[in-house]
Amino acid sequence: MTGLACGIDVGGTKIAGGVVDHEGRVLEKLTVQSPAADVGAIEDAITDVVQRLRASHDIQTVGVGAAGYVDRTRSTVLFAPNLAWRDVDLKAELEPRLDLPVVVENDANAAAWGEFTFGAGAHVDDFLLLTVGTGVGGGLVFDGVLHRGAFGVAAEIGHLRVVPDGQLCGCGAHGCLEQYASGSALVRNARGEAAAGAPPARLLLARAGGEIGKIDGPMVTAAAREGDKFAVDLLAELGRWLGEGIASLAAVLDPAMVAVGGGVSDAGDLLIVPAREAFLRTLPARGNRPELEIARATLGNEAGLIGAADLSRQD
Amino acid sequence: MTGLACGIDVGGTKIAGGVVDHEGRVLEKLTVQSPAADVGAIEDAITDVVQRLRASHDIQTVGVGAAGYVDRTRSTVLFAPNLAWRDVDLKAELEPRLDLPVVVENDANAAAWGEFTFGAGAHVDDFLLLTVGTGVGGGLVFDGVLHRGAFGVAAEIGHLRVVPDGQLCGCGAHGCLEQYASGSALVRNARGEAAAGAPPARLLLARAGGEIGKIDGPMVTAAAREGDKFAVDLLAELGRWLGEGIASLAAVLDPAMVAVGGGVSDAGDLLIVPAREAFLRTLPARGNRPELEIARATLGNEAGLIGAADLSRQD
Amino acid sequence: MTGLACGIDVGGTKIAGGVVDHEGRVLEKLTVQSPAADVGAIEDAITDVVQRLRASHDIQTVGVGAAGYVDRTRSTVLFAPNLAWRDVDLKAELEPRLDLPVVVENDANAAAWGEFTFGAGAHVDDFLLLTVGTGVGGGLVFDGVLHRGAFGVAAEIGHLRVVPDGQLCGCGAHGCLEQYASGSALVRNARGEAAAGAPPARLLLARAGGEIGKIDGPMVTAAAREGDKFAVDLLAELGRWLGEGIASLAAVLDPAMVAVGGGVSDAGDLLIVPAREAFLRTLPARGNRPELEIARATLGNEAGLIGAADLSRQD
Amino acid sequence: MTGLACGIDVGGTKIAGGVVDHEGRVLEKLTVQSPAADVGAIEDAITDVVQRLRASHDIQTVGVGAAGYVDRTRSTVLFAPNLAWRDVDLKAELEPRLDLPVVVENDANAAAWGEFTFGAGAHVDDFLLLTVGTGVGGGLVFDGVLHRGAFGVAAEIGHLRVVPDGQLCGCGAHGCLEQYASGSALVRNARGEAAAGAPPARLLLARAGGEIGKIDGPMVTAAAREGDKFAVDLLAELGRWLGEGIASLAAVLDPAMVAVGGGVSDAGDLLIVPAREAFLRTLPARGNRPELEIARATLGNEAGLIGAADLSRQD
Fold it and tell me: What PANTHER family does the entry give (chains A, B, C, D) (predicted)?
């Protein structure tokens, strides 16, 4: 089907909707505040966004990407850490209101599908998206099919264990990749050094007006771009962990490409180059096997919306 | 197609062939020595095995499982560490000789398919086989499809990195799961303790006639079955690493079941129970997600042959 | 000098004073509340305790053990995390009031000296005390001399790094022994398992009346003594980390004996036996070097008081 | 005593003797081949070297530094990995032949004493020498006294465990510092990268005439000095491990200074600067405690000879 689809990205603070054509172009986009604590209000807001976009476009299907666990039938949100949804059959709620077919998908999976179909992975069949933001997440596409897992909870790539007995993670386990390679890890490392009075952290601290608590991820990236060695090293450390994680994933999954998205990927080569180096240094059987491509994702924060729209069209 | 298929398992020392029916039963089996160093001789031996089995059964397809990298078209063996094959188009060589359709598959993938179709994983759609022998290998089935990877080299599960800066692996990387959870690791640990004169190792050493070099895996398993605490602990340590590795794989892949096969799995619950405990202890987000099943594989060393036969029938 | 000495142990909640003879016997003991937040009041309380003990005993010297960094001249407390002292010259304050010679010492050092002189280490010259309580601390005696370090801050044994990129420690570093082998680690592990609903933790949780937050160290020890496998395993895990740490310390320091004290050592062999096993399993050059002795400390919580008293007598 | 002393350094390939005055100056030096496999011949060679040096200098004592375990009485070599000595009472053998007082000492201890007395550590009381050559060794001086340990085998600093379940070490344990921070580790890493065809290793490989097996430590240092980024990174990696190890040692031992000697220390700041950075980054309680000094050792390969001579004078 080549009609227009509406993609909805439901986050903890904002709901974004977009009209997406069959080539992944966003023809129009509308963003509203997310009433995260009120199930009914979220549904009202989604309905409203779709109806307003529909006024000027012939939308035929709706895809909703949600930050949470979605069941295998792609209709029910089982659990969403930052939203009020608990076992909400979103498809059943929205379809009668909209009189349109609705598909629900985990947001990282939707983003992976978007990048696979229209973005960084458009030229391969086996693809892995790593999103590096507050946490580390991702999505997997194998032989052109989105991999959702037996229980719909696959691709929690940030919870690959990379250090036995390592840093305690919010998930209750120790040593998860997310504890070493996320934006939160970046900020924790930067602030930790600044708090310890490490001389290399001085420039970054000055940039934060001397307030350790004001150091954040974009500040580190900005400093690194201007050549601050300390900031460059912080990003390289993150990249190293990513690359080492990718080497493990390559051994198990053998994708043709890994794209790195999420807010921290704005650092570009400051993150990607060290990731590539670490990948090559730690790849098992290196030299006796083809080497996958590592690149930055290309759709930015619209990947989820575009992917959700396209998935609704596939159904 | 429900006709009979011939499965061939080509190892470094033996070639086993079996006539397999559509329910995975091995009607007849023939095992010959493997002329591993001579490409032509291996092909002759395979041909001979098929022809002899064919004399009494109506074989319609042939599946060959080989320990090596197989290309995505399932015809060419790219590289086989223990055999003379380097870029050998086995399908093209065998089909004219046999006048039968031939499919070539990596042996661990074939075994995974066998267990998935007729063995431990017959009741699930998303399945992971872990084979614990000299090394650690495995195969992946996602939504009923064997996962081969972009370059045909997926499922090298033994090369998931579990210890940063860990034990050097034969693959050139450090800290691979195989270095901690394989039969080789089991024997290395047992001999190491015996060599250091550790009192708990005394019973095992006596069992080996006092010769450290004679301690092997089956001996450890036998001792553990008879209650030797040292042997029990050695197997539990292996199980622990397996379980921790499975927890990481569950986060990324979300299979419904993991079956443990290979020679070391003869230890049964002495290996599986500690694996399950470690899996539960280290599973990310435990309590907020369904928990997969861990069980012993059921087809023993015929899994590869049965799987290869069935894959030839699918084509 | 074989006269009587007064030992004072200043903690965050209590001040204990004891009259100690030249054979390390505590002839009389007095314990009062510690006014931890008020420097002058602590000094008043110490003075009062000494004067009251002096009424009935001929005290000739006073040794004060304090939980904090003490300078090399053994008079000034540089920093005490749980007390108001910051650069307080305690010797100068107390001597005029008491008209007695005063020596100030770090409390863990004092305890090590006590155990070395009258307790578990009385038969050796090179001794290491490991105290396993809320944290992990200790003291070192080399060739009969208490080792205080260049800056007076030696023997922070709990901050030996045992896991690179490991658990974040209160000291700001990652992977410190204390994060794996202390009573706090024991309780964290116990509660974590209980919170995750782990079946083996059920008995322990029942013991805590179903309230996870009520699980504490003595409860784990009590459960282990009664055979609760889960509690036994928790203590064994702590013991394993201790033993592995001791193996590293043996390589560097080569003591004749390591005694394990502190509250968690009440678990006795449930802690010591696994520590010994792990020590032997991980000792470098095992078999080519003598093996030190690992035993439980014998003076209990009076070790610090006895040691401080004796140190004042040495001066 | 301020007379002249003779220092002897007995290695696996050479025996070096020197006449050393009371200010640590080497007045004359003689080096001969070491007949390592023949106990009697080594003793003959030592005797010969002393007698020849004595011809022109008034030698009053002899100190022998030997690569092996030496008993606490400083007379008997218990075990020497590269020499024929097994329980040889060297003092008893040499004194009658030379008619001079002889002291025997472990060579790394002797070097530590040399650096402490006349070299990098001459201004401090608490000193640690780290020697980074084929392996990692060292010596400890606490409050001006050489620390030999209860069994004479202290200061095996290379066998501090830095990675649990890490690289197997020649000592039988896993994860020893020596496996990450020695010249052998440097060469292994360099060759490993070259063997894997890593592009950054190309310049170094060219320097070795394309033969991977010819890459050695001095070559890496030379390349790094000329700015080869790959070689610089290899040395920095070694320095990082050293610095992290020093942070652990600082927590336990609190020395005022750590000097880095041994062949790899020829790399100077290329090794020392990264070590210092890693030390500061991982020091426990950083900011709340004084920070030790890390510098390069100053006596080069004469440290052992000078230290042995001086120790003989002390006796």
Answer: GLUCOKINASE, ROK (REPRESSOR, ORF, KINASE) FAMILY
For residues C110 and C131, membership in a common domain is answered with: no
Can you give the pLDDT of all 315 residues of chain D as single tens digits?
468 999 999 987 889 999 999 999 999 999 998 887 787 888 999 999 999 999 999 999 999 999 888 888 889 888 777 777 888 899 999 999 999 999 999 999 999 999 999 999 999 999 999 999 989 999 999 999 999 999 888 999 999 999 999 998 888 899 999 999 999 999 999 998 888 777 888 999 999 999 999 999 999 999 999 999 999 999 999 999 999 999 999 999 999 999 999 999 999 999 999 999 999 999 988 877 889 999 999 999 999 999 999 999 986
Specify whether D46 is located in the same domain as D162: no
Q: Which of C162, C165, C187, C188 to mutate to test the interface with A (most CBs of A within 10 A)?
A: C165
Q: Where are the beta strands (DSSP E) in A51-112?
A: 59-66, 69-70, 76-79, 86-89, 102-106
Q: What percent of chain C has pLDDT over 90?
A: 77
Is residue A45 domain-shared with residue A87, that is, in the same domain? yes
Query: What are the residues of chain B with a beta carbon less than 8 Å away from any beta carbon of chain D?
Result: 163-168, 172, 174-175, 180, 192, 195-196
Query: Binning pLDDT at 50, 70 and 90, where does residue C2 land?
Result: low
Residues A232 and A282 grouped into a single domain? yes
Residues of C in contact with A165 (CB under 8 A): 163, 166-167, 175, 180
For residue A93, the model assigns a pLDDT of 94
Q: Domain range for residue C175?
A: 123-298
Of D100, D132, D158, the one marking the end of a domain is D100
Co-location of A96 and A162 in the same domain: no
In angstroms, the Cα distances linking B147 to A141, A253, D276 are 11, 8, 48
Residue of higher predicted confidence among B200 and A243? A243
Q: Which of A12, A285, A292, A9 is nearest to A130 (CA)?
A: A292
C-alpha distance from D132 to closest chain C C-alpha (Å): 15
Interface ipTM: 0.93
Q: Which residues have C-beta within 8 Å of that of residue B219, sequence separation ≥ 6?
A: B204, B207, B208
CA distance D140 to D130: 9
Residue D315 lies in a domain: no
In this complex, the residue of A173, A286, A289 whose CB is nearest that of residue B283 is A173
Residue D113 lies in a domain: no
Residue numbers in B near D195 (CB within 8 A) = 172
Interface touch B165/D165, C-beta < 8 Å: no
Q: Which two three-digit tokens encode residue A292? A: 């996958």
For the segment A228-242, the average pLDDT, to the nearest whole number, is 95
The domain tally of chain B equals 2
Q: Does B169 lie in the same domain as B94?
A: no
Chain A residues inside the 8 Å CB shell of B282:
161, 173-174
Residue A45 domain flag:
yes
Tell me: do D71 and D155 sit in the same domain.
no
CATH at D191: 3.30.420.40
Q: What is the DSSP letter of A294?
A: E
Nearest to C163 among A166, A172, A195 (CB): A166
Residue A15 CA to residue B125 CA, distance in Å, equals 34
Q: Is the pLDDT of residue B2 over 70?
A: no
Half-sphere exposure of B36 (CA within 13 A, CB side): 13
Residue A143 pLDDT greater than 80, yes or no: yes
Question: Which residue in the set B165, B193, B280 is minimally distant from C198, CB to CB?
Answer: B280
Q: Which of D230, D280, D282, D288 to mutate to test the interface with A (most CBs of A within 10 A)?
A: D280
At residue D2, the pLDDT reads 65
Nearest CB among B150, B156, B248 relative to A255 is that of B150
The residue whose two tokens read 């061939």 is: B8
CA distance B101 to D81: 63
**Same-domain pairing of C203 and C263:** yes
Q: Is residue A119 part of a domain?
A: no
DSSP string computed for C103-131: EEEEHHHHHHHHHHHHSTTTT-SSEEEEE
